[in-house]
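In response to reviewer comment 3 from the previous cycle, which asked for concrete evidence that the modeling workflow produces usable outputs, we include below a single protein chain processed end to end. The sequence was submitted unchanged, and the resulting structure tokens are shown without manual editing.
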Amino acid sequence: MNKCLGCGIVLQNEDITKDGYVSSDKKLCQRCFRLKHYNEYHKTNKNNQDYLKILDTIPKNALVVYLSSAIDLNMDYITKFKNVILCITKRDLLPKSIKDSKIRNYIKENYNIENIEIISSIKNYNLDSLYNNIKSKNKSLVYFVGNTNSGKSTLINKIIKNYTDKEIELTTSLYPETTLDKIEIPLKDFVIVDTPGIVNNGSLINLIDNNLLKKINVKKEIKPRVYQIKNRGSLIIENFLRIDYETKENSMIMYISNSLNITRIIKNDRLKNMPKKHFELNKNQDLVIANLGFIKFVNEVKIDIYTYEIVKIETRNNFI
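The workflow returned the following structure tokens.
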């Protein structure tokens, strides 16, 4: 059974409208080929239930490297696994002034997880530590698991490049659902199994166009944007999210892509036709918007968010 070396899907040459189509004897399906060489993204025939079923096939004695972006800290499915290393990816997006020890302590205190690696695949940061940690577990199968856009395939490509002489490159992109099935990659010390990213149904990336998707996907360190707020006011992020606040003296610190436009508005109803969600945050809490980033508040505040109904928004203790 031939599989695409980029996304793991079974190759076929019978139906061009279905996943895995190849027009000739190639190692990449047409979807991966067009994505890799022309940045053309085509939606898949698969859905999130297909990906979750794959997680259910992971052997209980296998080691799981569970990836979570430093921006999201999304760990909805980590409790499914017994032998797990939590790998916080995209460390390079957070300000350098934040020490790894503070990130690690925050996760231990708020999520009760002990085995933590903090890395940046782009910067080759702490990859030796992660690799040695994996080796120390003496497991023959190592599954890489995480939400879409958590950086699984990028990390695996770096591991292959740094620690092997193999000429294999998984397909990576800023789009969701790039990896479609399991991909097994035998290394000297263990076999890596890449899995499809779990789709966060509450994510903005499922709802916006490609131009906004490029803006949201951060490529370099976030420069926090600080707003001194008081009484009532409003901020608009691009054309998809409105924030109405009510507070005494407060600080609102945005940790989102610096490519996104944020506008203060006064007494207008822009975006108020979108569904509203109300939050009352205590002192030193964050508002986390799935796959967008988070907003830090210093003092108590009342917030109304106008955005798409399905967008997942949560509160947590200040991460930074």
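The two ends are 48 Å apart (CA to CA). We consider this sufficient to address the reviewer's concern, and the full set will be provided in the supplementary archive.
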